[in-house]
Amino acid sequence: MIEYLGVKEFAERIGVEPGTVRSYLQKGLLPELDARIGVGQRAVRGWLPEEDNLTIHNG
């Protein structure tokens, strides 16, 4: 089974609150998702934990 970082785990990894990660997602400041399960606002988003690019993009 593949394990992904969710919004909470991603936030912990980069040192911000989960709400900040959701805001960054809406602004396109985060790396592309590796997984998305479901549709709309309730979709579960995920990033592979071993990725080196788990950082905020500055436009």
From the alpha carbons, calculate the radius of gyration and give it in angstroms. 11 Å
Compute the average pLDDT. Answer: 86
- Principal-axes geometry comes out as globular
Report the biggest beta sheet as strand number plus sense, adding barrel if it closes. 2 strands, antiparallel
Secondary structure class reads alpha+beta
Helix content: 25-40%
Number of helices: 2
Number of strands: 2
SSE string, helices as H and strands as E: HHEE
What portion of the residues fall into strands of 2 or more residues?
Answer: 5-15%
Can you list the strand order of the major beta sheet? 1-2
- The stretches of 5 or more residues where confidence is low (pLDDT under 50) are none
Q: For the record, give the distance between the C-alpha atoms at the N and C termini, rounded to a whole number.
A: 34 Å
Overview features:
single chain, 2 strands, 59 residues, alpha+beta, two-stranded antiparallel sheet, 2 helices
Describe this structure in words.
By secondary structure, the protein is of the alpha+beta class. Helices cover 31% and strands 10% of the residues. It contains 2 helices and 2 strands; from the N terminus they run ααββ. The protein has helices at 7-14, 18-27; strands at 35-37, 44-46. It has a two-stranded antiparallel sheet with strand order 1-2. α1 crosses α2. The longest helix is centred in the middle third of the chain and has 10 residues, at 18-27. The protein is globular and about 30 Å long. The model has no long low-confidence stretch (mean pLDDT 86).
